Amino acid sequence: MKKLVAYFSASGVTKSLAIRLANSINADLFEIEPEKKYSKEDLDWTNPKSRSSLEMKDKSSRPKIKNDIKNISEYDIIFVGFPIWWYIAPTIINSFLENYDLKNKIIVPFATSGGSEMGKTNIFLQNSCLGAKLMNGKRFSSNADTKELTKWANDFIK
Question: I want to staple 9 with a disulfide (CB 3.0 to 4.6 A). Which of 14, 62, 75, 154 is the partner?
Fold first, then answer.
């Protein structure tokens, strides 16, 4: 089974976790980069007019992505990582998923958060994963160890 760990990280926490996960399961790694990088002000969730707040209020928002994967057809399973924003995945994750033909792929979300769980993440990702099997994901603490990540991921890898 060919594996990919794709992730979006606003502060570096999800990136660190994604790297550990990819290394632990021998997966390729891909960073989902926004066309316009998020500034500290953009990420100010206490400001209802910040970029992230506006994107998350508009569930149809699809931030543009700077890069893409040329060979996504080669992958059987895609672990998709992100920070939890407003109890769901940031809408840039929908942008990423909707960019590709995911038919017959397994999509496994994973997230980082200071305390929020996955919330309604899968409800808001389902329509972005047409033809794929969207699995229930898991939120990890920033210091999740390799053993925990490997054990979890291996449940999806057959």
Answer: 14
